[in-house]
Amino acid sequence: MSEPLLKLEGVHTHIGAYHILHGVDLAVPANELTMLLGRNGAGKTTTLRTIMGLWKASQGRITLAGQDITARATPDIAQSGVAYVPENMGIFSDLSVKENMLLAARGARTLDDVDTKRLEWIFDMFPAMKKFWLHPAGKLSGGQKQMLAVSRAIVEPRQLLLIDEPSKGLAPAIIQNMIAAFKALKAAQTTILLVEQNFNFARQLGDHVAVMDDGRVVHSGAMAELAEDTALQARLLGLSLGAHQ
Amino acid sequence: MSFLKDFDWRPVALVPLLAALALPAVGSPSTWLTLTVAGLAMGLIVFIIASGLTLVFGLMDVLNFGHGVFIALGAFVAVSVFGGLNAYAIADSFWLNLVALVPAMLAAMAVAGALGLVFERVIVRPVYGQHLKQILITMGGMIIGEELIKVIWGPGQLALPLPETLRGSFLIGDASIEKYRLLAVAVGLTVFAAMVWTLNRTKVGLLIRAGVQDREMVESLGYRIHRLFVGVFVAGSALAGLGGVMWGLYQQTVLPQMGAQVNVLIFIVIIIGGLGSTLGALVGALLVGLMANYTGFLAPKVALFSNIALMVAILLWRPQGVYPVANR
Amino acid sequence: QSSKSEIRIAHIHSKTGPLEAYAKQTHTGLMMGLKYATGGTMMVGGKKIVVIEKDDQGKPDVGKSLLAAAYADDKADIAIGPTASPVALAMLPVAEEYRKILLVEPAVADSITGDKWNKYIFRTGRNSSQDAAANAVALDAPNNVIGVLANDNAFGRDAVKASKDFTKKAKIVHEEYLPVGTTDFTAGLLRLVDKLKDQPGNKYISVVWSGAPTPFAKIAEMELDKRYGIKLATGGNILPAMVAYKQFPGMEGALYYYFGIPKNPINEHMVAEHYREFKQPPDFFTAGGFSAAMAVVTALKKTNGDTNTDKLIQTMEGMSFDTPKGTMTFRKEDHQAMQSMYHFRIKADPAFAWGVPELVREIKPEDMNIPIRNKR
Amino acid sequence: MLSRLLSHDLPRSRPLAVLLALLVLGLAFAPFLFPGVKALNVAAKVLIFIALVVSFDLLLGYTGIVSFAHTMFFGIGAYGIAISATALGPTWWALIVGALGALLLSLLLSLLIGLFSLRVRAIFFAMITLAVASAFLTLASQLSDITGGEDGLTFRLPELLSPGFALMEDDFQGPFGPVALNGRFITYYLLFVCVTAMFLVMLRIVNSPFGRVLQAIRENDFRAEALGYRTVVYRTLSNVIAASFATLAGCLLALWLRYNGPDTSLSFEIMLDILLIVVIGGMGTLYGAIIGSVVFLVAQSYLQDLLRWAGALTEGVPLLPALLTPDRWLLWLGLLFVLSVYHFPTGVVGKLRERASLKGTKEGA
Amino acid sequence: MLQTSNLTVRFGGHVAVNAVSCAFEPGTLTAIVGPNGAGKTTYFNLISGQIKATAGSVTLDGRELTKLPAPLRTRAGLGRAFQLTNLFPQLSVRENVRMAVQARAGAGLDFFRVWSDRKDLIEQADRILETVALIDKAEARAASLPHGDQRKLEVGILMALDPKVYMFDEPTAGMSVDEVPVILNLIRQLKQDRSKTILLVEHKMDVVRELSDRIIVLHNGELVADGEPESVIASPVVQQAYLGVNPEEAVAA
Ligand SMILES: Nc1ncnc2c1ncn2[C@@H]1O[C@H](COP(=O)(O)OP(=O)(O)OP(=O)(O)O)[C@@H](O)[C@H]1O
Ligand SMILES: Nc1ncnc2c1ncn2[C@@H]1O[C@H](COP(=O)(O)OP(=O)(O)OP(=O)(O)O)[C@@H](O)[C@H]1O
Ligand SMILES: [Mg+2]
Ligand SMILES: [Mg+2]
């Protein structure tokens, strides 16, 4: 296993008076896809937000490509090549789809500066983006907003993607497209940390997996291992696969 | 060009429409011309003082009730600069007058901008996103600012006479066009062009609008929204300072309360314009300027309410102003 | 009740608010006047004069409560003030309730000594009628055609009403009322021009305006004199406001006070003292404050320091006293101080920032037939 | 019993309860505790502002509507009394007619404004009310035949309420000085009773199921609609109730001052004062109105005295006297605006309650 | 019976829902599927009155609802849970549900009683919190709940309204796998009460397959298929446009 691109060591996070993360240890290997699983309230979103600097870790260390980013400001972290798709999608609903994308393309002054191939690739994957290009993003359907949120994260190459539940609300066909896209991104040297509830989706994609419970990582290892071991799944995820695909 | 095709001309057309409707009502063409030019120029001055507020209130969504203090400050700084450069101001050459005028404008913008920086840090920063507190705290800031102006320059009115060559009028037949108003038109259009360029040709405008909706997300995209907001606030304050110079010269007297006096007026302008739209603010300001002059001539009593009636009428037509920018 | 060793005078004025600058002048004048009148001792009839300063902020309700508090809590014997007419009008009944004297200075509304008057009210300041009468003297000639531009409020309308009473020979062809705070005077002026420009005779726009912004600059910018031969006429004002007059050399009108005009020892003293202390000349309202002080001290000297209200009223009715503007007399009927006004002509003197009013003639009280408007 | 009276909405913090009790007792016995015309004036103004601020809190704190037209209703109330007392003379009938007339006008206007509020969004609504309020102010000063214009109206009240009326020949000798038992004294207690009643009624309204819906609408009006609440109706009702209470407060103001003018009841300054009081006290708490009104009005009334004293102390220090003169009291008032927004983000009531609940959780743990 | 006939809405040039006519019987659960942007949520919005139809009508038990605003439709018996969570964020979890209970009880315009005197409403709210397994968090602010719990609360609010027609818009999206059964059981219970009409938008085909009596498919705003679950899922339009499966693969599966 290659040297991890992102590493969390004993990270604690408080939100106001509440202690949410209780010492998260997590290593995200470069150029691979790590799934972060766990039940509601386990602290997955909080972990991503802490990495992004949106919550401040009260203890512990976060390193990105060897550099300590624990105390850095969010824009700095983003500028060192991290893109984030938040759970609530963070769509700028007053802006058009195009303007949303333009802002995500940090290096571009106008859209002419954006790599057209990459745009075409995104349009192929999410045709709705092209169709509603000039529409206010707030008027998109739930799934289309989700597509926009993911599109924004990949409009320019980044070294690390933090993605919070991208599959929710998406039709199966689109999920398939997205799986293909993540695979392509991986091939293009992008590291991905993905929070997911849809285990089926997770299983198809993940190289590695970490499972959280109650503000800690309670299991981490290769995806293949977890995918095989139904007993482990049941223990960690409460998953009785019979009920699901 | 698709830009032209998609462009919504109707609000802009209101301006000539209003002028055209006024012609038969006013009767005499020369009076009408005088009123119209005065109204348009007045509109542009109002636009200059309101332009900073479109940035701060319209785009940044900071209900800045203290904007007026930058206007007053700009005007008072101009009084001081003029005092120092009096020889140039009273010289009988346009260029020498400019030697007094330009530094006065720059100084006013610099001082107002600097105060804007302090204002943003101390007053506005803790209350981003909280309208009510913004109203109170900026109002408090305005009171403090106004009192400090009184401490420095005294509580009374001061004279700010026009530079020599800007006095008087050009006469076209029976109509008169004050020279100063032409200068106001030039400055106003320059400010307008500069703002349109910055907001539409760069990402600044987008970023501010996005930042107001979701600061965290903008930061997550890698932008230092904070610096941007500070910058915009300072720019808005500096524009107010410039507006103060223009307004002060227009009145030829300055008062510590002059900022508070125009508060409601500039709010009306940017509300009509649609909160954050530069073009909207321009249209709003021109409409207000024209309306004030026409009703002032036709029915002075009505003039008292003309701005408000105008605003209500516009909002009944377009509940979010003529060029809505944000869904607020 | 007034056997104390102090005479307490409450000065209630708009120390803060839009009229702050006026109020300051009044207070300076009052203090200078008290000092002058008592020969620097601040004592009358063996009693010390104590001035209690109160700030009505230009608000009638505040003024009203302050006056009550001054009489009741601070045991003031006499109150002086306020700056603004609405405040004064709200105060009048309080003086009556507490049966104490209120010496009005410098609020001008006619009704203070007119229909709202009660016997406890005296006024050293000029009233609107006096202003109007004086200006009429300056402007009321057979061949003159006048358009009036005034504030659209009680002050403006009062003044215009009064000036119509005094304009006998000239013709007033139009009255234009504009709200205080008008920012663009173009429309109003055009209406006036429309009415005036085709009239025969000497055409004037007579301006009665208080508050900023003022219309003077606009009248100059529109070059009405050059284009239509329409001249500006207006009364006096505070010095910063007279800066705009510089653009109208030769303009005539009547004013209440300008430091260079009255020639008497009191004025000379006041001007010298003021220059010494503030490095600038006294202004419009300084003279008013000074006059009020002179009135109070003169009365107290006559009663030998007795502050009994009835006695004071008796003393003050018909009393004459010296002021920077010469001798004034409280008219018995309405307690208005009758005083001189000054017909002036503006000269542009590069040594001064403002247009300098030069005396044409002193208008004596007897030259103005100021009506008695109260219902005594 | 007390809890019922307070609609089970108790202070929920011991220090707060003590503070409130002190203030209420202080107001109840103000004529005896703080003799003197000025002190009584301040106390009466506090009472009037409590009623006014409480009504505004219903709009702002509970319904989430930012309106700048609240002083308009306050002014209507004050003008109602002033105009009818001027026109009909100093009779009780005049007062009743004036109050009813004012209420009726307020009702109509608030209905109109309430309905209009649905067409436009929050900020636009706020700005429109600002404009409408300033138009109303202009109107009041223009209609000088009715309203007395900028001079306002000074009028007389029925004998019982006028200063000349004496309950007893001699002053009552209180422990802190003589108290004149005159018409002013009676008027003060009339105010006290009215304001107490208004406060309790408002407390009941905000704690009723209706009040709860208002809070839900403030949070998420779209959701409230989807639950079957017609936000139009609720918002409008809230507007109407707030306006009526403000009108009544205006009537009380006129009774106390026996004067009314545009600046006295309609100015934007008063609107700001109300806002600040709501924020100092704590939005959406009602109790905040009591604390905020006392703090603010006492500060406003005595700030100049304080500054005179401070200015005398610092004489000789450069610059300070220029800032510490009573003439610059507004500077310090502005500072009060800024600091109270800084330090009491949830108001005094909110702060005390937070502290109490933190203590509660700690003790519980 | 809930019926839409010819229901249409146009946004500018874009027809989001195009002449959809359909009837839903009490006691049945109809799943609505379709690609993203097909118009499912918009269809719900039209039924519950959040947006106004350009054409067509909505009737419930023969009563015409098309002209009614949203709150009145809710009172008429249409209940709705939202796709993007839509709560009273600063109110407590219990208060969120109690608001719904109070709405159902029609007690909103009661000015003079104290809210806590209506103990019955509070108890009812608590019962519902128990069924959605949120009773432990009754005092928490809704905004502080993790996403999954917010989804549960959204469903709880709908339950509290106890409408004739339940409209669920992706109730399980973002809910963790072990919590999903809680919601599914709730829906099953509703089905057992034969009087309720249930509409369900859901992208998880296993859930759809398990719960639904009938599936309708929206595509580009049009109703393109309607019928038994198995046959609809097997139809080529669903396989291709929705599930993104090649026909050959589908046969193989
Ligand atoms: N703003 C907040 N204030 C208080 N507590 C919070 C806040 N945000 C989250 N929490 C708490 O933090 C814990 C972890 O939440 P988090 O959102 O990280 O969970 P999650 O694993 O992402 O869950 P889900 O799968 O439902 O999204 C939860 O118990 C939640 O209640
Ligand atoms: N208010 C609106 N204005 C303009 N277009 C809208 C509006 N609401 C929805 N649309 C458009 O209508 C189409 C249907 O949207 P809808 O939300 O109904 O889709 P959906 O079927 O629910 O999709 P998803 O599965 O992604 O939630 C979308 O293309 C959307 O962009
Ligand atoms: Mg989460
Ligand atoms: Mg949807």
UniProtKB/TrEMBL annotation, chain A:
Residues 6-239 form the ABC transporter domain. The keyword Isomerase does not apply. It holds the Pfam family ABC_tran. It comes from the Bacteria. CDD domains: ABC_TM1139_LivF_branched. GO terms for biological process: L-amino acid transport. Keywords: Amino-acid transport, ATP-binding, Cell membrane, Membrane, Nucleotide-binding, Transport. GO terms for molecular function: ATP binding; ATP hydrolysis activity; branched-chain amino acid transmembrane transporter activity. This is ABC transporter ATP-binding protein.
Automatic annotation (TrEMBL), chain B:
Its main location: membrane. GO terms for molecular function: transmembrane transporter activity. One of its GO terms (cellular component) is plasma membrane. It is a multi-pass membrane protein. It holds the Pfam family BPD_transp_2. Keywords: Amino-acid transport, Cell membrane, Membrane, Transmembrane, Transmembrane helix, Transport. It is found in: Cell membrane. The chain crosses the membrane at residues 37-57, 69-88, 94-119, 180-199, 228-250, 262-290, 302-319. GO terms for biological process: amino acid transport. Belongs to the binding-protein-dependent transport system permease family. LivHM subfamily. This is Branched-chain amino acid ABC transporter permease. The lineage of its organism: Bacteria, Pseudomonadati, Pseudomonadota, Betaproteobacteria, Burkholderiales.
From TrEMBL, chain D:
Keywords: Cell membrane, Membrane, Transmembrane, Transmembrane helix. InterPro entries: ABC_transp_permease, LivM-like. One of its GO terms (cellular component) is plasma membrane. The chain crosses the membrane at residues 16-34, 40-60, 92-116, 123-143, 186-206, 240-259, 274-299, 306-324, 330-349. GO terms for molecular function: branched-chain amino acid transmembrane transporter activity. It is a multi-pass membrane protein. It is found in: Cell membrane. Signal peptide: none annotated. It holds the Pfam family BPD_transp_2. This is Branched-chain amino acid ABC transporter permease. It comes from Hydrogenophaga crocea.
TrEMBL record, chain E:
It comes from the Bacteria. Coiled coil: none annotated. InterPro entries: AAA+_ATPase (IPR003593), ABC_AA/LPS_Transport (IPR051120), ABC_transporter-like_ATP-bd (IPR003439), P-loop_NTPase (IPR027417). GO terms for molecular function: ATP binding; ATP hydrolysis activity. Keywords: ATP-binding, Cell membrane, Membrane, Nucleotide-binding, Transport. GO terms for cellular component: plasma membrane. Residues 2-245 form the ABC transporter domain. This is ABC transporter ATP-binding protein. It comes from Hydrogenophaga crocea.
